[in-house]
Specification:
It is a single chain. α1 links the parallel β1 and β2. The chain has a single domain, classed as Spore Coat Polysaccharide Biosynthesis Protein SpsA, Chain A (Alpha-Beta Complex). The protein is built from eight helices and seven strands; from the N terminus they run βαβαβαβαβαβααβα. The termini are far apart. The chain is of the alpha/beta class and about 240 residues long.
């Protein structure tokens, strides 16, 4: 069995998910589609993909719980199936899946590390660009480190033992706050983080599920909690930074 599977959280992307799953399986990797309460059209499309390809699996959540909840369910499923690593990609087709071998190679060099994408984006708005920069600065404060270059990228490969152990011990963000929250908390636990530069293309014809007010408030709350959580960990984080110089 291939030790790595791919997890794709899906919420109403019926027109792009077929190409995403085909790209994943073309790399010889099993693909888990996590249906996060999609509508009928998307749910039917996911069933078609599962029936058409034995290496495509489907996990359904009973209602929409958010991207983070879908990825967490997928990570637990992957661990229970005996995989050692899981690569998270988005369902909207904006990730360059030709980079999958680069993630796998980086993981082979350091199997205990999280391998996360560092985006070089095309078509990104100025507001989104500066929002990412603010998040980067906050993450550097929360980790007392500049090791994490792009905490919001949803293209990353997790070592399952360390990641599921974190999920068993701590509740992480369940929606758009997930990617940053889990990465900072893995860093706090001493999990190494390596980065792969990757291309992301933001397309106007693909709907975004980001809700400006609700998700920004959720992300602001996350950063407040992470900064508060950093304070008692600060001596250890600073010692680790000095040790690794």
């Amino acid at each position: 069995m291939n030790p790595t599977c791919v997890i794709v959280p899906v919420y109403n992307h019926p027109h792009t998910i077929g190409a995403v799953s085909a790209s994943v399986t073309a790399h010889g990797l099993p693909c888990l589609l996590v249906d996060d309460g999609s509508d009928t059209a998307c749910a039917q499309r996911l069933e078609e993909l599962q029936r058409a390809q034995t290496t495509v699996h489907l996990l359904r959540l009973p209602h929409n719980r958010g991207k983070g909840a879908a990825v967490c369910a997928g990570l637990r499923w992957a661990r229970d199936q005996g995989y050692t690593h899981a690569l998270q990609v988005d369902a909207d087709g904006q990730h360059d899946l030709a980079d999958i071998p680069r993630f796998l190679d980086a993981s082979a060099r350091d199997p205990q590390a999280v391998i996360t994408g560092s985006r070089r984006a095309q078509g990104i708005s100025a507001l989104r660009h500066y929002g990412r920069k603010v998040t980067d600065w906050l993450v550097w404060l929360e980790t007392l480190s500049t090791q994490i270059d792009d905490s919001m990228c949803g293209y990353r490969l997790y070592p399952l033992a360390a990641t599921v152990a974190l999920l068993d011990a701590t509740r992480v963000g369940q929606r758009m706050d997930f990617d940053t929250d889990i990465l900072v908390r893995l860093h706090w636990r001493g999990v190494a983080i390596a980065q792969v530069t990757t291309q992301v293309i933001y397309r106007r014809d693909i709907p975004s599920h980001f809700r400006m007010l609700r998700d920004n408030l959720r992300i602001a709350r996350m950063h407040t909690l992470l900064i508060a959580g950093m304070l008692p960990r600060a001596p250890l984080l600073l010692w680790r930074r000095w040790r690794d110089r």
